Amino acid sequence: MSFSSLVRSSSLSHALVPYGWDEGWEAAFAPYAEQGLLPGRVLRVDRGQCDLITPVGVVRADTEFVVPRDPLKVVCTGDWATVDADGDPRYVRALLPRRTAFARSTSSKRSEGQILAANVDHAIITVSLAVELDLGRIERFLALAWESGAQPLVVLSKADLVPDPVGLSYLVEDVETVAPGVQVIPVSSATGEGLDVLRAVVGGGTSVLLGVSGAGKSTLANTLLGEDVMSVQAARDVDGKGRHTTTTRNLLVLPEGGVLIDTPGLRGVGLWDAETGVGQVFSEIEALADECRFHDCAHEAEPGCAVTAAVDDGTLSARRLESYRKLLRENQRIVAKTDARVRAEILKDWKRKGAEGRAAMEAKRGGGARRPGR
């Protein structure tokens, strides 16, 4: 049997099934099998090298042959890759086309895109109930999750710190109002509350844990794994913030099925070309916008605006509308940095608003006519 035939044989590819290998990945890899390469899934990336699980076990490989100019196309945890069958060092030769990709804008002044996890089915946004809910941050995470192509899920961790069932139900309802189409699950690693529901979700496919430091991601990962794989540090009592327990993104197989990617706590969650995701999060506002008198309504002071009317009659919260505006503005700025057409549209809009403002001032002054005697 040739090496390429051996790679495609069920005996070897079966070893990758727990990591998400399926017929689709096998078909995508077929051309590389003819070149004598191995398939592998990236478990972690560290300074130009990565660990991959392959049909012959875990191997360490250099990524220098797949270093693109686009930072969103670098090797990332969750990627399926092709790697040398042997050699010292081994090299990653190519990445198989991603099905989904979770990306954000970096906190640097250059605002480059950063890929956090690839080929994810469920984006688990972890929110601690030890501190006051930040609904705006949840909306931001949700926008990125929807844009990635994964199905978002909000997990309210440390539910045991809210002993009042009524109070807990109110917190869940608050999150549900900002997460249309998203399941919201209160969980407690201490009491086991909600874990059966969560295990049922993560048992199918690949899930990524997302959230700020101190949200309880590593504790939740250990609970799902059934052992203390990820180190855990206590959050500060004063504000609930924690240090970065997880320093790299790690891909781990769950004992009851499914794959989990744990990520470091995110201090900044900048949008990256996430207009579709924003629209998904604020779907009720997008639906109202279809009823506005003008198709290009900015939902500010235009007559016949269904969105501002909903705010006035109390069916839409002013906070929700402001959050929608904020995320759209931020996303537009990010896109404009790489899209000349968008930059031109923004400049045109600024000029139009400036002209409208000057015309309004002239009208208020009586058409700008000089006063008698001057």
Give an overview of the whole structure.
Helix content is 35%, strand content 20%. It is α/β, with parallel strands linked by helices. It folds into three domains: 3-95, OB fold (Dihydrolipoamide Acetyltransferase, E2P) (Beta Barrel); 101-262, P-loop containing nucleotide triphosphate hydrolases (Rossmann fold); 282-364, Probable gtpase engc, domain 3 (Ribonucleotide Reductase Protein R1, domain 1), CATH 1.10.40.50. The protein has a six-stranded mixed sheet, sandwiched between helices. It has a five-stranded mixed barrel with strand order 1-2-3-5-4. Strands 6-7 form a two-stranded antiparallel sheet. The termini are far apart.
**Proportion of β residues?**
15-25%
Q: What is the name of the CATH class of the largest domain?
A: Alpha Beta
Structure classification: alpha/beta
Whole-number total of structural domains: 3
CATH topology of the largest domain: Rossmann fold
**Helix content estimate:** 25-40%
H and E string: HHHEEEEEEEEHEHEHEHEEHHHHH
Under CATH, the homologous superfamily of the largest domain reads P-loop containing nucleotide triphosphate hydrolases
User: How would you state the average pLDDT, rounded?
Assistant: 83
What key phrases describe this protein's structure?
374 residues; alpha/beta; OB fold (Dihydrolipoamide Acetyltransferase, E2P); Rossmann fold; Ribonucleotide Reductase Protein R1, domain 1; 35% helix; disordered C terminus
Per-chain topology:
Elements lengths: L2 H6 L1 H4 L9 H11 L4 E9 L2 E6 L2 E6 L17 E4 L6 E6 L5 E5 L7 E6 L3 E7 L6 H14 L2 E7 L7 H13 L5 E4 L8 H8 L3 E5 L6 H9 L24 E4 L5 E4 L12 H7 L1 H7 L16 H7 L5 H19 L3 H25 L10
